[in-house]
UniProtKB/TrEMBL annotation:
Alphabetized UniProt keyword annotations: Membrane, Transmembrane, Transmembrane helix
Whole-protein residues included: 494 to 780 of 780
Claim: Nucleus is one of the keywords in the record: no
Superkingdom of the source species: Bacteria
Organism lineage: Bacteria, Pseudomonadati, Pseudomonadota, Gammaproteobacteria, Oceanospirillales
Record's keyword annotation contains Transmembrane: yes
Natural source organism: Oleispira antarctica RB-8
Annotated GO MF terms: cyclic-guanylate-specific phosphodiesterase activity
Protein name as annotated: Proteinase inhibitor I4 family protein
Domain EAL positions: 29-284
Amino acid sequence: SSMAVSNAYKDQVSVRLYQQGDDEIYLYKLHLIEELKAALENPNSPLFMNYQPKLNIKTGKVDKLEALIRWINNKGDFVNPELFINLAEKSGLITTLTRWVILEVIKQVDHWNQLGHKFKVSINLSAQDIQHEQFIEYLLTTLSNFNVEPVQITLELTERDLADNEQLVAERLFYLKSLGFEVSVDDYGIGQSSLAKLKNLPVDELKIDKTFILKLDQCQQDQDIVASTISLGHKLGLRVVAEGVENKASLELLEQFQCDYAQGYYLSRPISAEKFIEWYESDEHVN
Ligand code: C2E
Ligand code: MG
Ligand code: MG
Ligand code: MG
């Protein structure tokens, strides 16, 4: 019930020290959790997916996208995804949310396949998802209802997600890999883990965190970090993606560093599936 969800969340936050303003924030968060729960049960959902293209720098083509969830609440405002994903994780709603995302994305990829566009789409996972008993089963059952191959689905996990319950997560990833799914390490470079640790996991892709990319064109240190991460990633056989590419100069530097993919506002913001295909077919994205 919704009460159970509220109470579970309450237990986790009530141990924090009292601070002025906390009450309001706390109540707002409880309210959001209730609203999110209702949104996930609503067949006419106020949740929807946006897609952000990833540019294959060598070919100049877009052949991959990242699926990003969006939510417009009862007041008509966008709720920050980082905020509600975090609340979903804390309240236990994340499993339901991720199932919702998986179904939406696979449906969309199937639709694009029918149009003759075989894109690869990445889905963001939380640590709880990959550790969940029924996760792989749900993923496979959903795929079997559509004409989508596992190789079209990339699973993005952060370094932190990979470090949680390492043994189990490694087993799951090896199994997913054997089924054909790809694995991507999101927000790479801001966590504590090292590439050395990742070499024991079946990782296909490294996404350099946007904090290193946003001002790449203006910061020599970022350039050094990014260039060496790309080169080390390649030595380990990984595909490297830069997220947060906001200008042409940064894209040119990434090309010079032989980065494989670029994702960011310079190319396109995350947009609806309809807007994306319009943009894609119009060739506006070709330089
Ligand atoms: P993320 O997975 O690292 O996603 C990339 C974020 O960077 C997205 O924020 C995207 O809109 C933003 N971004 C892309 N290009 C640029 C750029 O050029 N400049 C700047 N400043 N930002 C850029 P968004 O959509 O707000 O999502 C934030 C985070 O929320 C995601 O980070 C991910 O951790 C989480 N998230 C989003 N959708 C989902 C989902 O469906 N499931 C789960 N579990 N988490 C999600
Ligand atoms: Mg991501
Ligand atoms: Mg992330
Ligand atoms: Mg990221």
